[in-house]
Specification:
The protein is mainly α and 451 residues long. 64% of the residues lie in helices and 2% in strands. The protein has a three-stranded antiparallel sheet, with helices on one face. Helix 1 packs parallel to helix 18, helix 6 crosses helix 8 and helix 18 packs antiparallel against helix 19. Keywords: Membrane, Transmembrane, Transmembrane helix.
């Protein structure tokens, strides 16, 4: 078995993309503009937003399937699965060796961060179903005889998703900037702080805290809106991802969450670009500071995490609205349209990384304490490098994911804009948002090639 180093992030960059970057960027921008033109002509009324009896209602699944998915037994099984993985990972983190061969690193950076995205896109809000902090909070409530949904205080609406955005930034800073991110001590400490904050928040505010403030539940739930699974009037339904996406509730801090997710993925490409590597190594100011490279990376990550929100908010502020709609409310109302872009970039940047290092983690997980054990029976498996052996296919997947993500985002933004904007502004009023989408598309593809 060829060991895979954890510090790499699997983006691959130009070596994975045997196609012209100019052609890819031009084609992507053209696809976005053509899509907008078609939408402007053929999509004059909202099809999802504000239409609860339309596509959002979905198609009900068979009664037996609804009974299984909503049953107590299914919920308990999901909770047990989450706790087993949590305890197994905790054993590796606490008792395992401080080496990159410890599977805890792969579980933390690959399975939890990236695998959760793919699982949520296929199955819906997975983390809400298996979250160990929810399970522990439920156990404490059972012991104390309290209701896990009711805390000591009501969660302040003004906080919204702001705590989740801070938690997500803390994670990406640890992964992408902190120089000791592959040492067991700091990662264990991060996880311990996460669990402690989540349990304290759950005790004070009840389960509503997790829906708003748990970074991984918010992340998983947002990506899960692009799955085909939803609920309507208490029943499990199947509906289009666009219909699901339209049900995202505008919340304080929502734009910050999607901005951190989008911007940090872009920074992951940027930090490996020749320009930034050369700057970090040769700039006199950076070199003259103690931990100068870490400070520079931290500032760059902060800029990248804030930039999408600033661009999007600026575009929304330039949008022509009517007297019944305040421009400052538009960013939160349209922030859901960035979620398809996030998923597209996650696929583009991490597909091969997740496929290969995810397998390697499963192999190493069979021996969590490095004692020669083979608890899972996967110890003698070999990593399949099929995707890396097909660079043209991988290139098409990466570029296609970015393009599709932006086109779906344009559709979601258009549908919400048609519902919000006055008829006379429904086309021209969207031009600033279209320009923002073009900037995201060209900038994202440029970074994808530049890494």
């Amino acid at each position: 078995m060829i060991p895979l180093p954890l510090p790499m992030h699997g983006i691959g960059g130009a070596k994975d993309l045997p196609i012209s970057p100019q052609l890819a960027i031009t084609g992507a921008v053209a696809a976005l503009i053509i899509s907008f033109s078609v939408l402007a002509l053929a999509w004059r009324t909202p099809r999802y937003d504000g239409n609860p009896d339309g596509p959002v209602a979905g198609r009900r699944v068979p009664h037996w399937m609804d009974g299984v998915l909503t049953s107590r037994g299914f919920a308990v099984a999901a909770r047990v699965l989450g706790m087993v993985v949590f305890l197994y990972s905790a054993a590796a983190a606490v008792l395992g060796e401080d080496l990159l061969t410890n599977p805890f690193f792969g579980i933390f950076y690959v399975w939890w961060w990236i695998g959760l995205v793919f699982a949520s896109a296929l199955l819906g809000p997975v983390w809400k179903a298996i979250s160990p902090v929810r399970t522990i909070n439920l156990a404490f409530s059972k012991i104390s005889g309290s209701d896990p949904d009711v805390g000591l205080l009501a969660y302040p609406a003004r906080l919204g998703h702001w705590p989740a955005s801070l938690g997500l930034f803390a994670f990406v800073w640890l992964e992408l900037v902190y120089p000791y991110s592959t040492e067991l001590g700091p990662v264990r400490l991060w996880c311990a702080v996460y669990v402690a904050v989540m349990l304290l928040g759950g005790a004070i505010f009840g389960n509503g805290f997790y829906e708003k403030a748990d970074p991984f539940e918010v992340y998983s739930t947002l990506i899960g809106k692009l799955s085909v699974w939803g609920t309507h009037e208490g029943r499990i339904v199947v509906r289009s991802p666009l219909a699901n996406l339209s049900t995202v509730v505008p919340t304080a801090g929502l734009l910050a969450v999607v901005s951190v997710l989008f911007g940090s993925t872009a920074f992951d490409s940027f930090k490996d670009s020749p320009f930034w590597v050369r700057f970090s190594q040769t700039n006199e100011l950076v070199a003259g500071l103690e931990n100068g490279s870490t400070i520079a990376d931290s500032l760059a990550l902060l800029v990248f995490s804030a930039a999408p929100a600033l661009v999007f908010a600026g575009a929304a502020a330039a949008t022509m609205t009517g007297p019944d709609l305040r421009r400052r409310d538009l960013p939160a109302m349209l922030a859901h349209s960035i979620v398809p872009i996030i998923l597209g970039y996650i696929v583009a940047h991490y597909a091969s990384y997740w496929f290969e290092v995810g397998q390697d983690t499963l192999i190493k997980a069979s021996d969590p304490l490095t004692t020669g054990a083979d608890y899972l029976g996967t110890g003698d498996w070999q990593v399949n490098y099929w995707l890396s052996y097909h660079p043209t296919l991988l290139a098409n997947i990466k570029v296609g994911a970015v393009v599709v993500g932006h086109v779906v985002a344009a559709i979601a933004s258009h549908d919400r804009s048609v519902a919000l904007l006055p008829p006379r502004h429904q086309i021209l009023g969207q031009l600033p948002l279209l320009m923002a989408m073009v900037a995201f598309t060209s900038g994202g593809l440029y970074l994808l090639f530049a890494a």
